[in-house]
Design brief:
Blueprint (H helix, E strand, L loop, with lengths): L1 H18 L6 E5 L6 H11 L6 E5 L6 H14 L4 E4 L4 H4 L11 E6 L4 H8 L3 H12 L2 E5 L1 H4 L4 E7 L17 E5 L7 E5 L7 H10 L4 E5 L3 E5 L4 E6 L3 E5 L4 E4 L5 E4 L2 E5 L4 E3 L4 E2 L2
Length: 286
């Protein structure tokens, strides 16, 4: 009997050690567009708190990665970044174990905008991707804008749809099995991230996708706006516009034979600068 009590005591003492065993890093996810100066500085300040404070830019989503990286490096240095490095990799390079060393000493990593499928096409399931997950666990801040925001979630919106449409007629329907997704980098597991949201009227595609993934939240970030996801899985809204959160936990979805969607009781929040939201409890904190 004494042995049982000892084992229970040891287990209870160990609980605090495991309670905070999740990632120590932060996510800085921007909806695209121009960043207010305060948003850039917030990212730089957080990156400066770990290791050397170095910021590594991964601009492969861009069609002009060198140009994109140069612009971002200038902005980060303007707001006090200690060191900024650019890594433009091919898939072949990212598959080499030594390429992961490019992230050594990083306090922050930043994904530029462009086409999110380009970025995952280079990095997904490579030693560099594994290193990104590792340094996030250790406390690094991982940031991205536009396409660099879309890659953050495990379910990633590619920007394509199944049905064939004319230009400027994209995502005009609420239909299941139409929004094309693939695997993202998996930093966010409780939500699907969307970007440029209100500005580009992307409600249809995210609501359509939630009919297929009612277990996930939809977190949609507008331009000039960011969410800062903290280690406790709460996020703070920073910036000029809104973050829309769709919560389908209590919703009832029905997918009709023509793939149109019927639903009731879908909760929607429109959050602004300073608001906080808990991804675990699905509650607005203030």
């Amino acid at each position: 009997m004494k042995r049982v009590f000892v084992l229970i005591a040891v287990a209870l003492l160990a609980l605090p050690l495991y309670a905070g065993s999740g990632p120590k890093g932060y996510l800085f996810i921007v909806g695209g567009g121009d960043w207010p100066d305060g948003v850039v500085k917030r990212f730089v300040d957080l990156a400066g708190g770990l290791n050397t404070g170095k910021i590594v830019i991964l601009p492969m989503a861009s069609s002009v990665p060198e140009e994109s990286a140069t612009e971002w490096a200038s902005d980060f240095k303007k707001f006090g970044a200690k060191s900024v490095e650019t890594c433009i990799l091919t898939r072949e390079q990212a598959l080499k174990p030594e390429s992961a060393k490019l992230l050594d000493g990083a306090g922050g990593v930043f994904f530029s905008g462009g086409d999110q499928s380009r970025l995952t096409g280079v990095l997904l399931d490579t030693p560099v991707h594994n290193k990104l997950l590792e340094i996030f666990e250790q406390g690094c801040i991982i940031g991205g804008t536009s396409a660099g925001a879309a890659v953050m979630s495990e379910v990633m919106i590619t920007g394509d749809e199944v049905r064939k449409v004319e230009a400027d007629r994209e995502f005009e329907t609420l239909q299941a099995l139409n929004v094309v997704t693939t695997r993202g980098f998996g930093f966010v597991k409780r939500a699907i991230i969307d970007q440029h949201f209100v500005t580009r009227k992307r409600h249809n595609r995210l609501i359509s996708l939630l009919a297929e993934h009612p277990e996930l939240l939809g977190v949609a970030i507008d331009e000039s706006t960011a969410i800062l996801v903290k280690p406790d899985e709460t996020f703070e809204v920073i910036g000029a516009k809104q973050v829309i959160v769709y919560d389908p936990a209590g919703a009832k979805f029905k997918i009709l034979p023509n793939q149109n969607i019927r639903f009731t009781n879908l909760i929607m929040h429109a959050l602004t600068d300073g608001d906080q939201f808990d991804l675990k409890t699905r509650e607005v904190k203030n």
